[in-house]
Amino acid sequence: MNTLAAPAGAVDEIVTTVEVSRGRALWTTIRRKPLGAVSALLIVVIVLTALFANVLAPYDPLDADPTIRLAAPSVAHPFGTDDIGRDVFSRIIHGSRISLWVGLLAVGIGTAVGMVIGLACGYWEGRLDMILQRVMDAVQAIPGLVLALAIVSVLKPSTTNAMIAIAIVIIPGNSRIVRGAVMSAKQNRYVEAAQAIGCRQPRIVLTHILPNVTAPILVIASIWLGNAILIEATLSFLGVGTQPPTPSWGLMLSSTGRAFMEQAPWLAIFPGLAISVAVLAFNLFGDTLRDAWDPKLSRN
Amino acid sequence: MYKYILRRLLLAVPVLLLSSLIVFGLMRVMPGDALIALMGESGNVGEKELAKLRKDLGLDKPYHEQYLIWLWQMVSFNPGHSIFTNEPIPEALKKAIPVTLELAALAMVLGLLIAVPIGVLSATRQDHASDYVGRFVAVFGLSVPDFWFGTLVITFAAIWFQWIPPIGYASFWEDPLTNLQQFLLPAAVLGFRLSAATMRMTRSTVLEVLREDYVRTAWAKGLAGRMVVYKHALKNALIPVVTIVGGQLGVLLAGTVVVETIFALPGMGRLTVEAILYRDYPIVQTNVMLVAATLVTLNLLVDLTYAWLDPRIRYR
Hints:
With 300 residues, chain A is mainly α.
């Protein structure tokens, strides 16, 4: 019995080293590439803005004051006002809620479903894998934005439906990456050992394989977050995402930004800047996570 | 190689069939059907007319029959009429496809012209100022929404240079000068977006290749720097770049949707967006399917090119 206990302890030790080194790897990468830290800080700022939008915004984002319509940026209205006199700064602060909410939920759903499909395909392979992967191919054959447009057109334009559409777009790519990671994790001796001692399959998948594929899953999710925000903004810009008068960055650009862009360029500049900064922050952070946790992914 | 081509072709057929099922299914998920949604919104169509329209469009048949009819229409290049304008869809496509093709081809060329030199510069001067600038431009390109970039380009071209692209689409064959004036800005906006990923890929593959033995040999035998980089390194580094360019075809096609809308170019993208807004479902399903078929075919061609360039792939 004693001889068996020793290796078990050793395994625990290895597991904890892995846990520690993942945090440390991130820290080392951030120190080596300060852009990672900057992006993390930006994300914190965006999240706090979304959480405390009510406190931070100087005005109600829906409050119109026709006497100050299309006012240029000033101390009272740092980003100016729009065509019916709403404060652009307040609308951008509130818009962060929509972007973040849609991004997080869409990526959450897309990643979770993609993960389940990827785990099943990668672990069991065979006919199930063949069929599911062909379905994923079929979904992926339609460009993401076009698919999202088609889905939203069927479901009726709204924020929730834009979110569902984005989640569906995310699933195939995610499932493929998880599938690949599972297939290589499956080759490990400890999986063979778990099978040999008679572990049930769900347990092998959930406790032996899943923890070893979380890195690529998290990396991909973080990279998709920026993309999801971009797609939501694009859908809203095209008129099939968030509907007026809700403040959404993409919608602000299309409705008033384009119509008054020569008289009041601030209407187009600031919402676009907000989208770019948010997407940039998530892209850079995703890159940092990838460099720290999963250098192999950067090659693909 | 023939075996590989045959296998890939056989795999593409079920994928396209499944895509068509997804598209068809999507269009039928619509609450009620397309017509009720459409007519309900205008609110002035009687029950009788609705039934007649439904019969004309074949919406009263069972789903599997509708699907087979639609599939046959797609295969025989006769996808019916627009509900809204009653124009035959092939006519609308004949006008729209050349616009999108021209935009996409120009964007691709401009994208490569931006991406490859910057990527090479970034790699050969790794961790220097120019590398940081190059990498920042690339990440920036991935983050800036093309609809914003496009809007800014139009606005500032108008404010600073008092220049607006000529209104009313002119075909390249009839009026090449006006046509190029209309296409250059949108293609540049789209090309910039495409160049971001290509730039990153070029940088990382050139970096990798520069560490290979044969590059060291080239340096050791005293070749000039430019010779080593362009003749020895870049040539080999470009193989994976071909794949990333191929992989971007989807981004390119999606990008045309946005850019055509902003720059008012009457291409496939704008046709699709308008059809979606008017719920003109015959056009939507035809266009989405056409885009999927194009993408699958192009990806197949890219893979075949890749297999031809790198024989190891065929034997996987």
